[in-house]
Design brief:
about 130 residues; mainly beta; four-stranded antiparallel β-sheet; globular; single chain; seven-stranded mixed β-sheet
Length: about 130
């Protein structure tokens, strides 16, 4: 079993930056594909970014391209989401997730993920 714990959320103003962290325990972290998803009240959870097992492939939803950067540190068993130029539309609960699949075409789908964190709130005021 893999346990995931997010941190780094908070209340910021539009244009500010935040860095989310996801710490993992259990399992073999370096074999996992990782992703960030977010959810706002009344909406389905949506894909934000994903990164493959060795960090050389990353994927983003269109609305965050050029502003968000996903990264991972396999030695530390951590994943990060650097979020720049935040807008109120980025307000959501952000979840980190881990997947046993190494199929790149699958890791943008939340159905591919086996493990989830509890979420961290990001609120961007205008």
């Amino acid at each position: 079993q893999v346990q995931l714990v997010e941190s780094g959320g908070g209340l910021v103003q539009a244009g500010d930056s935040l860095r989310l962290s996801c710490a993992a325990s259990g399992g073999t972290f370096s074999y996992l594909s990782l992703g960030w998803f977010r959810q706002t009240p009344g909406k389905e959870r949506e894909f934000v970014a994903a990164i493959n097992w060795n960090g050389n492939r990353a994927y983003y939803t269109d609305s965050v391209k050029g502003r968000f950067t996903i990264s991972r540190d396999n030695a530390e068993k951590k994943m990060y989401l650097q979020m720049n130029s935040l807008t109120p539309e980025d307000t959501a609960v952000y979840y980190c997730a881990a997947s046993n699949t190494m199929i790149l075409s699958a890791i943008r789908s939340q159905g591919a993920y086996n493990y989830w964190g509890q979420g961290t709130q990001v609120t961007v005021s205008s």
